[in-house]
Amino acid sequence: MSIVLPGDHVPARHVNLKLGPGLLQVSSVTPKGADSIVVATRAGELNHSANRSRWFVEGNSRRYIPASQEAVVGVIIQKVGEGYRVDIGSAHPASLDSLAFEGATKRNKPNLKARCLVYARVSLAHKDMEPELECFDAQTRKSEGFGELKGGFAARCSLKMCRDLLDPKHFLLPLLGGRFPLEVAVGLNGRVWVSAKEIKQTIAMVRCIEAADPDGGGMDAVAVKTFLETLEV
């Protein structure tokens, strides 16, 4: 990892290159002809996936900036025509077509109400356009976990905490899963949906996420385990 500032060139090269938050691909003219380069648009830590196909800048931003292919937890604001407007915590609401669900047709499509929660994937993200969402995997056309989130509770946390929870090596979710059955949907927009059989278990998950959040308690595995003992779940 390295620190980048706005305007810095980033050595992002891959056949299936995907740029996340804080990066922009621009065209440039060199003595060898036209080329494209990747530059940072905000300050932070430069990160990439293990195979170097996905790159992003991890900053201390409070507002979510939509990026294509990212999973988000959204709240339905209203129904508009054949779709919905969804609050995903960004500067502008996102749009979700009612047909953007697995198996949805004009005669058979979900009927979501205001304040319903959805787990969706950002299919279009452009600074000059409203973000667009889909509730299925673009390749398989299957839900793959996306869709309406029923019951449970949507907790808010830092954007960094969301990325930490998606890391298989992070301690929190395995620790909680060893105590009781749970369901979790992690959005990269600073929202995590959690659900358990008992209300006290759901509350415990939310409190542990807040405790482990770098912008909150910042507890490590040992501290969270001790804290969990006091919750009696």
Automatic annotation (TrEMBL):
Keywords on record: Cytoplasm, Exosome, Nucleus, RNA-binding, rRNA processing
Listed GO CC annotations: cytoplasmic exosome (RNase complex); nuclear exosome (RNase complex); nucleolus
Exosome complex exonuclease Rrp40 N-terminal domain location: 17-63
Sequence ranges assigned to domain K Homology in this UniProt record: 152-198
Name of the protein in its database record: Ribosomal RNA-processing protein 40
GO biological process, one term: U4 snRNA 3'-end processing
Nucleus listed as a keyword: yes
Source taxonomy: Eukaryota, Fungi, Dikarya, Basidiomycota, Agaricomycotina
Annotated localization: Cytoplasm; Nucleus, Nucleolus
Family, per entry: Belongs to the RRP40 family.
GO molecular function, one term: RNA binding
Main subcellular location of this protein, as a coarse class: cytoplasm
